[in-house]
Amino acid sequence: MIKNILIRENILGTNDQIARENQRILDNASIFSINVMASPGAGKTSLIERTVDRLKDIYSVAVVDGDLASSIDAERAAKAGARAFQINTGGACHLDAIMLNQALSQIPLNLIDLLIVENVGNLVCPINFMLGVHKSILIASIPEGDDKPYKYPNSYRNVDVVIVNKIDLLPYISFNVEYFRRGIELLNPGVTIIELSCQTGQGLENWFKWVEHECVSFHQSAL
Amino acid sequence: MIKNILIRENILGTNDQIARENQRILDNASIFSINVMASPGAGKTSLIERTVDRLKDIYSVAVVDGDLASSIDAERAAKAGARAFQINTGGACHLDAIMLNQALSQIPLNLIDLLIVENVGNLVCPINFMLGVHKSILIASIPEGDDKPYKYPNSYRNVDVVIVNKIDLLPYISFNVEYFRRGIELLNPGVTIIELSCQTGQGLENWFKWVEHECVSFHQSAL
Question: Is B70 on the interface with A (CB under 8 A)?
């Protein structure tokens, strides 16, 4: 048992050390960076597509996509106008700092202003692995149900923004918005919550504003 | 590296050994058992509620619910008429054979005909841990998107049935049923696919029939 715990600490210790190195690399290159996490199918790729499409004339955007298999997501990000890099994790259920570090070594950092990391679709594991990026985003979606903050507390507790996607489906699904928001507030008081639909576009402006505001703040403080 | 691989093999080796013990326990008690896996919010608890409600007059049903936190799911299964047992995994992203073994020790096995295990909501990790139950079910759902078999191949490859839930939402979501089914067929040729909606009840009869047929076959072969 002690042996297992030590190994786990070593793995996480090594991860955090490389995460700090990643952050130094990103800071030195003046790249604002976000980690997007969610259940499978909550809308990570759709939100990234819309974000790249909207911001590509202002910022040069790179997207790193983590998936067990396939390059479907990176192809979508590239089509939207990003420099896209696919990481296939094989069996691994999350991205870690080492994978991101390897991806960073392939990106022409001096040409990039904004890096979006799309984590593996998983509401449990990714939150446990620091990547060294500046902000963490969780995408929830209406069809997943209103009880998810209560059942997956860590993923709601340790993020900077909760996006609530697929609000266009609210008329067709039993979903108590008050109960859902109360769960988030208990875990992460005052966290930014943005309701939107990547399908209809409703609410997307609030998300773009958040990204732009954070990008500007980051680049100003880097001067 | 070699050390890590050995430890992983030891963990999985121990798990599989206890999984075989679980299956012996279930066989000896004549309990037909299924493991239900899915992404968060695909409808595991809803399907189990409907199944318990429908079959409780024919079979005595026990439900073991695995969640990171809360007892929401076990309460719902109990309300539907099952003997329900909640496992809180803490941080663990899956159920393993040891957790199920501990749960089995608390269940009055001689009173049970059918055991339904609701795994942690996660499309990546649970499939890697044998539990020792007789059949494995994956629930997909329309809002998750039609590309999931291609992105999470292991979870589609190693199951006996794929349920496609929330078909009532098809009119409101872009979902290519042909592309989705082709992905499943490539990974798991001939697997039973059942399309249904726990919300409207459409297609549920086909699922109930599958469970009843398997239950009868199991109990006949046990004679």
Answer: yes
